[in-house]
From TrEMBL:
<dbReference type="InterPro" id="IPR006095">
    <property type="entry name" value="Glu/Leu/Phe/Val/Trp_DH"/>
</dbReference>
<keyword id="KW-0547">Nucleotide-binding</keyword>
<dbReference type="InterPro" id="IPR033524">
    <property type="entry name" value="Glu/Leu/Phe/Val_DH_AS"/>
</dbReference>
<feature type="binding site">
    <location>
        <position position="68"/>
    </location>
    <ligand>
        <name>substrate</name>
    </ligand>
</feature>
<keyword id="KW-0520">NAD</keyword>
<dbReference type="InterPro" id="IPR046346">
    <property type="entry name" value="Aminoacid_DH-like_N_sf"/>
</dbReference>
<feature type="domain" description="Glutamate/phenylalanine/leucine/valine/L-tryptophan dehydrogenase C-terminal">
    <location>
        <begin position="185"/>
        <end position="469"/>
    </location>
</feature>
<keyword id="KW-0560">Oxidoreductase</keyword>
<dbReference type="InterPro" id="IPR036291">
    <property type="entry name" value="NAD(P)-bd_dom_sf"/>
</dbReference>
<dbReference type="GO" id="GO:0004352">
    <property type="term" value="F:glutamate dehydrogenase (NAD+) activity"/>
</dbReference>
<feature type="binding site">
    <location>
        <position position="192"/>
    </location>
    <ligand>
        <name>NAD(+)</name>
    </ligand>
</feature>
<dbReference type="Pfam" id="PF00208">
    <property type="entry name" value="ELFV_dehydrog"/>
</dbReference>
<feature type="binding site">
    <location>
        <position position="363"/>
    </location>
    <ligand>
        <name>substrate</name>
    </ligand>
</feature>
<dbReference type="Pfam" id="PF02812">
    <property type="entry name" value="ELFV_dehydrog_N"/>
</dbReference>
<comment type="similarity">
    <text>Belongs to the Glu/Leu/Phe/Val dehydrogenases family.</text>
</comment>
<dbReference type="GO" id="GO:0000166">
    <property type="term" value="F:nucleotide binding"/>
</dbReference>
<feature type="binding site">
    <location>
        <position position="92"/>
    </location>
    <ligand>
        <name>substrate</name>
    </ligand>
</feature>
Amino acid sequence: MPDKTFLESVGRYFDAAAPHTGLPDGLLKQIKVCNSVYQIYFPVKIDGEVKVIEAYRAQHSHHRSPTKGGIRYSNHVNQEEVVALATLMSYKCAIVDVPFGGAKGGVRINPWEYTEADLEKITRRYTTELIRRKFIGPAIDVPAPDYGTGPREMAWIYDTYRSFHPDDINAAGCVTGKPVSQNGVRGRSEATGRGVFYGIREACNQQELMNKLGLTLGIEGKTMVVQGLGNVGSHTATISQDEGGVKIIGVSEVEGAIYNPEGLDIHDVIRHRGEHGSILSYPGAQSFGKDERRAVMEFECDILVPAALENQIDADNAHAVKAKIVAEAANGPVTADGSAILAERGIIVLPDIYLNAGGVTVSYFEWLKNLSHMRFGRLQKRFDERNYQRIVNQIEETTGKSISERDRQMIVHGADEIDLVRSGLEETMITGFEGIYAIYRDQEGVNDLRTAAFALAISKISNDYISLGIWP
Ligand code: NAD
């Protein structure tokens, strides 16, 4: 029977992993259900007319506080979608050891149809509704960007929250993904895409996995196709090209798709779209119009990165996927039926609940920064630099040789905030991969990385319930 909704797919993934955890049914049920959903309708005056806006905030699990998850602005937002996304957030946080429960918000609008002033009105009103019901706060529930939202919306949320709580010294921790000038953290915008890159790189470093796929070891030289050049897709593509030596050969956006097996310079493609408003007609590439944009899923490549929306690979097109690795940068881009077909065909899926966890990881760093009221690196940077200088001086004196000015600068450089954030993210993605891969490799009956990831998440959440005494 084909799966009907995104939520149903998430439920099926959970059910497939649950038996591998050895946990009792009652505890599994508590970990599976969504604890609370707040549905709101509120009026906003736009162009002299009152529009009634539908919005949600779902908190899937309170085993840790605060709850955490993005806010999505899209025409397709509905309760089931928000609950499915909140559910994924709980598992995601568990996998990467971020001490939050899962949550997600959604506003049912097409953000590209509204002016900036209208979006500000909607965002501030939505935030006010969340404040009223205590669905937001640095110790309660902390939103972040998702599809259709970004640092600008997060700054409005922060400002609205702050004006209702002028005496809350931790108010900046009520939302993450804020601009750096508004108590954000350096490296948050790129974090999800950078995390996706680290995750793919880890998978490509597994000899056994690469042998299975008939691919060479390492990410360098692999070909990649990316669906969606928004926040996640553009950073995944640029970082994979610049730091991984990956060849981007296809991309798609709302207006269509382009493909060039010889390689595309992703920076130039992004520049072209900025100038012409479209990726189509990019020189030297084959173009597919809006109606054919789903063809991107069938482009020949090593790594396919869906980075737009859910349900992009399903029972209809999973047979036609030619990639060896499907890297779920978006949430829920492959349905449960699609996933089963890909598994049968020997295609490796790097699951969303691990692969796109870089965003929430760096959001956690931002929240910590807000609670500590200090930029990362401020205490130790100069101290470290002085020490490194002394060591280099000593080595030069002892050996009688001197190093180049460029090398000296590299060695003595103390860590800035961006260095620490990237390093913390890299460590998190490597450790997360190791945890999932160990279950996939060693546990009998676990045949895919998604089941391994769900089993890991469920076990970690159950430990909280048991050790906190929430579960008898
Ligand atoms: P975004 O709004 O910045 O970008 C999405 C892009 O996809 C847009 O450029 C849009 O035009 C494009 N798009 C929409 N429909 C398309 C289609 N049919 N074909 C091709 N392109 C299409 O959103 P984002 O923040 O990059 O989020 C993308 C996905 O990643 C979502 O599933 C989101 O839940 C997930 N995600 C985002 C973050 C984050 O930090 N932003 C974190 C984790 C997961």
